[in-house]
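On clarity, I found the account of how folds are encoded harder to follow than it need be. Since the whole study asks how a given chain folds, the encoding of that fold should be made plain. For illustration, here is how one protein appears when written out as sequence plus structure tokens:
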Amino acid sequence: MTFYWKGCETNMKVDRIIETDVLVVGGGGAAARAALSAAEAGANVRVAIKSKWLGGGSTATAFSELLAIAAAIGHADERDQPEIHYEDTLDAGRGFIDPELVWTLASEVPDRIQDLMDIGLNFDKQENGKLVQGMSDFATYPRTCRVNGVTARHILVALSKQIKKHNVPIDEHMMVFKLVTDQNQNISGALAIHRETKELVLYKTPSVILACGGAHHIYKYAVGTPDMTGNGYAMAYELGIPLINMEFIQIGPGAINPSITLLSGPVWKTKPILKNDKGENILEKYVPPHIPIDDVYKKKVFPFTISTAAYYFDTSIQKELELNPTPNGGVWCTMPPGSEDIVQQKMPKTGGVLKSKGINIFEDQFEVALVAQCMNGGALIESPDGTTKISGLFIAGETAGGVRGPDRPGGNSLAEGQVFGHRTGQAAAAHAEKAMINGSAEKESLGALVHLSDLIANSYGDKDLVQAINTLKEVMYKNCLVIRNEQRLNTALTHIDELERSMDAGEFIIDKENLFTAIDLKHMLITSRAIVIAAKTRTESRSCHFREDYPEKDDSNWIKSIYVTQENGEMQVGTRHWPNNRSSERSEIKR
């Protein structure tokens, strides 16, 4: 199909048009919950996922000793109530997050736990039949609920069985890359490209839910799967939606070879020994004499934070990654002699996972580096229903911004996916029933098709896209990891500028066969720039954001969110002051 409109022509062909009431973009916990809730509300729902269903993203692959979903149901301690969950979460990010969203999370997640139980999810239980609940960071009482050590995966599988019962089509290997709006800035559709067949698909729909995860794979090492490159952030940004709190990224240690395994807080209670490639003990090298190394181990949690002595743990690793790295760019980790009992007590699951990957932790040294795990920022949502300034666009899960700030309490991530996935699914279905499918999506997608056609036609160079992506990951890893400063961040920005200039100048090899990769690189550059600019703007150190040149927390100037938005084709920076609680006046945007 060739489109003509207002005298313009493009030979870029849309291979297939699909109509649906609600398009869910993503395949993790939030996306699955959204798809199920929209289907239960009576909508015709379709899911587009960049990878394979149940095989990509964070939810499908997440693992740690502490992985769980937080809900104040009072099974471990009857004093725990949603009001306390609310206060605990707000205390972890007060001034950086929307209290209304936090209250929705805390007050509604008990119902979502019950939903999961109703569809057959078998949470770990006590002898009296109540759920087992564990402590997590920032929690007053034990609050996290688990399922056999791989909670996230079990949640996703349980939801997928229900989605199958509703006959919801799932388009695998389909990257949605452009949201289509009408002249009134209402969603009318979305363009996508299939990774394997290269076909271009136009979804005609009045409701789109972006729940396509984060962007931690703009870094060299990250958990999850490589498809998490910030597509949702980039698409929202292109429509003028603010990206907020993007400088706050959860990063911490993980085993990196033969594959990445996150190493959570309990692992470090066994006091593994970390050495560089020269055989030097890196904690002895960098921890000041007045701080006991045992205290560094004791305080170590995932992710990195400047708030405790564990600061030296992650910063020591990054320094040695640059000075004396192991063959794969890490440090060597070995378990201390006679640690078998404490390993079994503190990290049995991690030990088993590493063993399945060929690592005997009692005999082998294995490589550890810093890995990106979760984006605390995201595309700003305007209400608990995941609404945005664009009518018909809803956002949930890690793609959404406004409910996570400098810190994210343990167990809240899975909780967010269930609460806001459910709400966006219902809201998107209600919007679709009212709005109906807009018949003008074909002509409104013309601009994007012309751009793709020009991108290919004007590409005369010999630069390789995959190499560019790998270099970007290296640059972000070196310059915007846990140690940040003006020079590092400027280096990252310069590299981003150069890659964007090369793309605009046609210096890459781009054709229909690698168009998927070209679009991915473009989205990675938008997301990387947002992160670096936010980190550069925040001239203080706070929680997971450490500015080596501004090492102190500055409460007098920086208890506020930084956001970036597109205006007149340029990335602009602003700040947002949030109310202290949900009874206060709504937040105020300043520039």
In short: The radius of gyration is 23 Å. DSSP finds 18 helices and 25 strands in the chain. Residues 249-372 form a domain with the Flavocytochrome C3; Chain A, domain 1 fold (CATH 3.90.700). Residues 412-435 form the longest helix (24 residues).
